[in-house]
Amino acid sequence: MNYPDIIQKLPRITIPIHGLFAHLLQGENNQLVFFDFTEDSEIPMHSHGAQWGIVVDGKIDLTIGGIEKTYHQGDSYFIKAGEIHGGKIYKGFKAIDFFDEADRY
Description:
The protein is mostly beta strands. The protein contains one helix and ten strands, in the order αββββββββββ. It is 4% helix and 53% strand. The strands form two sheets. Strands 1-2-3-10-5-8 form a six-stranded antiparallel β-sheet, with no helix packed on it. A hairpin with a 2-residue loop joins strand 6 and strand 7.
């Protein structure tokens, strides 16, 4: 599943993760990011402001606050502000994530 043109026309952002393409919808106080992974990727443990996401396609092994879980299409996740998280993302993973920060990316 590819994102439609209305999403692909959004500004593309550069995130230093190999095989990641992302488009940004910038709000005054937050951001909405459309992620598309074309290769398997590891996301190191880190933290930032609150984040909510929904899996559009594919799967991710995500560790949030020390609890590991696999998320698939249609699953959503919530990461509280400052909560340590990271994981393994598989080729073909697409997600839409809301960040409660104006300047995350």
